[in-house]
Amino acid sequence: MNANNPALDRAVEIMIDSYKKGGKLLVCGNGGSASDSAHIVGELVKGFLKKRPLPDDWDEAMDHLPLQMGLPAIDLTAQGAVIAAVVNDLGGELMYAQQVMAYANPGDVIIGITTSGNAQNVILALRAAKMKGATCIGLTGKGGGKLKQYCDVLIESGETETYRVQEEHIRLYHEFCARVEAAFFEV
Question: How far apart are CA 86 and CA 100, in angstroms?
Fold first, then answer.
């Protein structure tokens, strides 16, 4: 794990604190970063590096099915019908911001992913999240683009070329997910 990234360290602390207080994570991205949004949520909703067993009474109540404990996370890129309605009725740049208006609460966290830092749909999502009292984490390429002004924490790649930024993002968010998971699950 990377031991020298203060922004990542801070993002992990924020997420752990939010979860301990009953918060949730919202994630959105533009283009290839939309796939990263889904990937992050997948690592948190079910076991990533740990098995996350149910408490014994829950396991018994569910007939010992192989369910796992999860951490609440929503991929805003996966809401196809909602996105289609927003695009049609309000405009494409609002596809995530409208969902943030519905889902975000004070104490929640949003991660906005854009390799350039300039994806307008992600910027508007973070603007809405700040208004709703959520903590905003940006995952961008070098410099952070316009998104950085809306971030409580900016985790930026040292790269500028899209595919290189995405390669670094995978490593960064895997570390984020592993460290958050380790704070809640021992097995």
Answer: 12
What 3 state SS string does 96-161 have?
CHHHHHHHCCCCCEEEEEECCCCCHHHHHHHHHHHHHCCEEEEEECCCCHHHHHHCCEEEECCCCC
Each of the 187 residues of the chain gets a pLDDT tens digit; together they read 445 899 999 999 999 999 999 999 999 999 999 999 999 999 999 999 999 999 999 999 999 999 999 999 999 999 999 999 999 999 999 999 999 999 999 999 999 999 999 999 999 999 999 999 999 999 999 999 999 999 999 999 999 999 999 999 999 999 999 999 999 998 6
Cβ contact 173:37 at 8 Å: no
Rounded Cα distance, 41 and 44, in Å: 5
CA nearest neighbour of 160 among 140, 142, 148, 145: 142
Q: Which residues, at least 6 apart from 74, have a Cβ–Cβ distance to it below 8 Å?
A: 24, 25, 26, 27, 41, 103
Give the CA distances from residue 71 to residues 1, 40, 50, 99, 127, in Å, rounded to whole numbers and listed in that order: 21, 11, 12, 19, 24
CA distance 187 to 174: 18
Residue 14 token pair: 């924020």
